[in-house]
User: Fold L-fuculose-phosphate aldolase from Amaricoccus macauensis.
Amino acid sequence: MTDTPDVALRREIVETCRKMNASGLNQGTAGNISVRNEAGFLVTPSSLPYDMMQPEDIVQMYFDGTYEGARRPSSEWRFHRDILAAREDINSVFHCHSVYATSLAVHHKTIPSFHYMTGIFGGTTIRCARYATYGTQELSDAALEALEGRTACLLGQHGQIALGKTLAQALYNAIEVETLSRLYVQALVLGEPPVLPDDEMERVIRQMKNMSYGRAPDLDGVNDTARKRA
Ligand code: 13P
Assistant:
């Protein structure tokens, strides 16, 4: 393959898939990843083990639901398409069945602001979307609703979705959802933990936006608590 920008993006998708498995976030062929490109979006193929996946296996999709390539696109292409179409702030969609997030999702639990880091996803909760069969338009509609104003959600009896401006940010968010889910599951052992009040979460979210908190690749010296020396 020649070294066009899309080849670089395809390689980055394959690398991100391998990182997802190496981090323990995912097992087997579950999960799928997409990233916007000029023609539409690139998405992982369906049911292909990540250690076998090559850049040319990544599928070019268009917003009308058609695709090009030797492989079939992920069965979840609908929610990748619908999220990328609806969210101009997002360029990458990441889906996996990570163990702790999925443990909460099988109970249809929304993650509350039991810890201030819940705010990094844009609100006071990480919602859990209602269950719908994998690969369906109903699942895509449920996911879009749960993602309103957020960069992550759980999928009832299924897994999680994390969004990012870049592939790296979507992976970071997926790991963060899993970390928070793990904390929440562990905290629930001692009973339902208290939640931070809405006005405190408003302050946290405002401060996170000002500081690009957890968004180091986006930082350009913006930090209202410390100034870089001239
Ligand atoms: P695909 O292999 O078709 O992407 O499906 C995996 C999955 O996680 C479905 O939700």
